[in-house]
Specification:
Largest sheet: 2 strands, antiparallel
Strand content: under 5%
Mean pLDDT: 78
Distance between the termini: 56 Å
Number of helices: 2
Number of domains: 1
Number of strands: 2
Shape: elongated
Strand order of the largest sheet: 1-2
Radius of gyration: 33 Å
Length: 159
Amino acid sequence: MPQSQPSPAAAGAPATVPSKDALQRLLDGLQNLVREHLALARAEAKEDLLSMGRYLAYGAAGAPLLAVGYLMLMLAFGYLLAQWLAPWAAFGIVALANLGGGAALTIVSRKRLMESRLRKRSAKGEELQSNKAWLSSLTETTRPQPDGKLVEKGPVRLT
């Protein structure tokens, strides 16, 4: 009858199986996290491109008509003011009004765009914080120390 070998734990060797399991769980979790983030990013990009393309098509369809109508309206205002003022002054006033309105719209839309970007960044930051908390919960069991001993500790903080 063959003689059984003593187990490594009985012989005083450090038990590394739990640490390997914890490391494997951590690696699996990281792989799943990266895979899911990439899938989410692809889906978000696809959705954004489709909606942007739709809006761009609708805007492009009406832009020529809008431009012609706006030009005709501004000419009418210029000729109306030319009845009381010199023609160069009347069309200058209409041009300045258009420049002021365009500048105001540009400033307001740029401000809204920046606010939208900040909201998206803060949402992504919150998601990253929740991912860090999830990753730290994976390492709650045991962690090997440099001397080879296993120490029971709480969650690891990822800073």
